[in-house]
Design brief:
The chain has about 130 residues and is an alpha+beta fold. It has three helices and eight strands. The structure holds zinc ion (ZN). Zinc ion binds near residues 8, 53, 77, 79 and 127.
Length: about 130
Amino acid sequence: MKKIEHIGIAVKNLNAANETFKKLFGEAHYKVETVDSEQVSTSFFKVGESKIELLEAQSQESAIAKYLNKNREGIHHIAFAVDDIEAEISRLKKEGFSFISDQPKKGADNKLVAFIHPKSANGLLVELCQEAG
Ligand code: ZN
């Protein structure tokens, strides 16, 4: 894995959170994107070389809605950049990690993404992401 690509933060209200994080970073988000397949709206902030992704549920079916039913707002996942997501998935499966879905999906910010189940990573929801090109 190359680096932490971004940290995902679950929020109840994206517009309100955008204002808060704009004050925090001194700079507004650079993009807002809805991922229909995941039923989430996202916004992205650049912080030096890193990014912060805010996630708001679009429906009660969304994983973010389910997460916020059980947890407070806050860090939801950490995303790691990889060069070859398929190769990483098969490497990590051999190491015993279980994935939420076996195939990479199109995520926000022009990425192919796959999530490792937090049960197999000490409670951390790990996102692998590869630049979709
Ligand atoms: Zn993410």
